Amino acid sequence: MAIAPFNYPVNLSASKIAPALIGGNVVMFKPPTQGSISGLLLAQAFAEAGLPAGVFNTITGRGSEIGDYIIEHKEVNYINFTGSTPIGERIGKLAGMRPIMLELGGKDAAVVLEDADLEHAAKQIVGGAYSYSGQRCTAIKRVIVMESVADKLAALLQAEVEKLTVGDPFDNADITPVIDHASADFIWGLIEDAQEKGASALTEIKREANLIWPALFDHVTLDMKVAWEEPFGPVLPIIRVTSLEEAIQICNQSEFGLQSSVFTNDFPKAFEIAEKLEVGTVHINNKTQRGPDNFPFLGVKGSGAGVQGIRYSIEAMTQVKSIVFDVK
């Protein structure tokens, strides 16, 4: 069973379907409710490529209405899901003894040390935080920076965010409306909480329906929701720290463990930090991102279960059987 999300309805569907088919499986595919047309066009492409009828099947509908039924169906013997952590946890409970692969939420941090190339870091962080309006599990969702360089980095981040365009996706704007009103309301709640608790807004705080202008907050403290919760929108908090140990501790206190970035010119130290971070992938001097589909892609803790990537996915969706023949 392949269940895909709205934000990459083709790529994150194909990355489940193709390895399953290569492994010799029959696939039931549920495209996202808010991306069903893309999913059905993908299914049509497989059919036109000559895939036999019945090998690749689609089912549409709201997950809240049909999700439990399809997950618990006795004919489903493997579940590959991308979506929110609460839904992933529910799937894990419903799956019972059946194997699952879960790609869930994240609170990816960009850790910036004193010796980092701050201009480069700022460009990478803004690109990683605000692309697709922040609606990516691999988006940078918080900046953890050493106090000694925080003022300079904050100014550089502010300058980069001010370059972003806001508007209609058909006009190729950088920041466009988020997926629905519920998502916009949740994001706005995080913004209001940060403002009420004293965070410094470095950008205009503005909303029109589902369209939220890119928000950048400095002096974010750990009692603010935006320091811990995944906004899935164009909001980026800056958290100042006085030591590397404090930075690592804040990273690892998260319920999520998808990816992190580390910006430094001390490469031995970068690898030392990478070893200590409780995440599936660490990017050194680059933004967090999925990468090519042949790369291993995984999360730990509340960010997922199993390893994706063409080779890893095929292996995960292949049932091993040993047959021992005794010749006398």
From TrEMBL:
Annotated catalytic residues: 103
Q: Where is the Aldehyde dehydrogenase domain?
A: 2-323
- Sorted alphabetically, which keywords does the UniProt record give? Oxidoreductase
Q: Extract the InterPro entries matched here.
A: Ald_DH/histidinol_DH (IPR016161), Ald_DH_C (IPR016163), Ald_DH_CS_CYS (IPR016160), Ald_DH_CS_GLU (IPR029510), Ald_DH_N (IPR016162), Aldehyde_DH_dom (IPR015590), ALDH-related_metabolic_enz (IPR051020)
- Top-rank taxon of the source lineage equals Bacteria
Q: Which family does it belong to?
A: Belongs to the aldehyde dehydrogenase family.
Please state what the protein is called.
NADP-dependent glyceraldehyde-3-phosphate dehydrogenase
